[in-house]
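The aim of this short unit is practical: by the end, you should be able to scan a pair of folded records and say something sensible about each. We start with the first protein, listed as its amino acid sequence and then its structure tokens.
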Amino acid sequence: MTAPAARRPAYAPMRPAVAQVLGEAADADPALVVLGADGYGLATQVRDRHPRRYIDVGIAEANLVGVASGLARSGRPVVVGTMAPFLVRRAAEQIRNDVCNPGLNVTFLGVGGGVSYGTLGPTHHVPEDLGFFSGLPNTRVFCPTDVVDAAWAVREALAWPGPAYVRLGAREDRVVHPADREFRADGLLLAEPGEALAVATGVGVPVALDAAGLLAGHGVRLGVLALPVVKPFPAERVRELAAGLRAVAVVEEHLDSTGITQHTARALVGRWQGAFLPHAVDDSYPPLGDRAELLDHFGITAEAVAACLLASLGRRSEAR
């Protein structure tokens, strides 16, 4: 009798689900306005149903945020959606001074955070986006994993009366969550910890889950805490879950100096003893390659996480 084939993971783009959320939000709130910069993939439903409330400013990100600021000052909730690398780099001053400093109700949707644009190269890599927005006071920051928590994250961002940033995938992302998942702002414990815990966000979540599967074959139980919300960071929950464990790994598609690696280290320093194992973008510019190659380059893979944890726990590694 032949064993059943392993079920292949499903993949889906985030943009259509987000477009639906924005369409529903525009239906419910006649004041809401959506802005874009030479692209309307996030705003298809708003553009079709409420064309006077969708504005495309062209390839002019600083102007994009300036217009958003003016509309928000008039009392309108505003959504800004465009490519993450150009939003963060070309409009940094306007984001900081015109929106976040006065605490205006603007939700930023950044498509293609991290290294998800791959072979388009360093101009399109932005492994610092979460850190940039996290450094702005009173700003909420979200990093969903898949189409399901992307829709949840955008709804949560829209409900927040101040500035918020949601990192979105550029292409298709692996679906991890069931459609009826109930999310928590302080993270989802997708696997119970035994010897170790992985704190993960975005693409790091399926990597951590796969690492847990590899480690199970070695008799090691790896807990997985998925964080769709990066800021505010759930420091107390991380400390509670890490208590008594021998190792904590962090898995993220972001610079280790300003992402959840740094937040996790800060939460644990002086209060926990064990092996701290970051799997993130290090202090270097990503080389040229597709997304999978870049994640492998930085050790953001299930095999790398499992091998590192086995070594830290004193087990013989056969994960690679």
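Turning to the second protein, read its sequence before its tokens, just as you did above.
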Amino acid sequence: MTNLPQGWEVKKLGDIVKLKNGFAFKSNLFCDIGIPIIRIKNIQNENIVLDDLVFCNPNDYKNNLDNYLIQKNDILIAMSGATTGKIGIYNLNDKAYLNQRIGLLRIDNNILRKYVFWFLYCNSEQNLTNALGAAQPNLSTEQIHNIQIPLPKDIKEQERIVGILDELSSHVKNLKQNYQAQIKDLQELKNSLLDKAFKGEL
């Protein structure tokens, strides 16, 4: 990366984050109540969605599972499968465990989490391809550590960039919701007209 503005620097992701890997929870010990386990399928649309959850009773394991608890605002990244590189932010206060093949990123206090998140989100394909050297279905801890991120040293500049991207993201979501609502209204109108057409009411 060259020609960065004055006051910017390039860092390896491994220099500014702590990366933790998930635990190999046993599917035969999944239960209907307990502490939820966040799996790769729960990482969707920039967030962690609580659809199709499985749960864990920590008493079923000899391991200390506290090391795999997710904290609010942790960044999660899929490390294998067709959705490798997909990321989301855990925005909940509730306890949850991190499943295997998901990486958890905790950011240094002097760097905005959202800045790192938006960099990974907006440049995921290019940066992950650079880290991997080719399109592969798996991402290692070392490869994540080696991703290079351009970083403003001034946290106020990070805040300014994050503010712009947050606003844009909110605008896009609103447009999608309005578009989906319009499609639903048009489909209902179409069905109504079809019904009337074959009743001789048009």
